[in-house]
């Protein structure tokens, strides 16, 4: 089973993506969060064709933290139904994965 994942989350603004990125890293729910520039999303929402400019956040974390990460994002996310999807990290630089593991483990109290 995959241990590490990359989570893709869309936001309406860079500010909302940045707030989420900081929250996820500071709470050790993600080791790293990268905010990509504007993307264009095309979809149907509640029966209407939609086109939106959005910001994509990529968060690297552990699979066991996914449910907690989703909960943390949804607390402050402005969308009714935010995109929060996880893709497996099948392989990676051993040192990077060790760092990811360390960052996604809360510090001892």
Plain-language structure description:
With 109 residues, this protein is an alpha+beta fold. It has one domain: Alpha-Beta Plaits (2-Layer Sandwich). 31% of the residues lie in helices and 39% in strands. It is built from three helices and four strands. It has helices at residues 14-26, 66-76, 94-103; strands at 4-11, 32-45, 48-62, 84-88. The chain has a four-stranded antiparallel β-sheet with strand order 2-3-1-4. Strand 2 and strand 3 form a beta hairpin. It is elongated, with a radius of gyration of 15 Å. The termini are far apart. The model has no long low-confidence stretch (mean pLDDT 94).
Blueprint of the fold:
Layout: E1 4-11, H1 14-26, E2 32-45, E3 48-62, H2 66-76, E4 84-88, H3 94-103
Antiparallel strand pairs: 1-3, 1-4, 2-3
Descriptive terms for the model:
109 residues; alpha+beta; Alpha-Beta Plaits; four-stranded antiparallel beta sheet; 4 strands; 39% strand
Give a short overview.
This protein is an alpha+beta fold and 109 residues long. It is built from three helices and four strands; from the N terminus they run βαββαβα. The chain has a four-stranded antiparallel sheet with strand order 2-3-1-4.
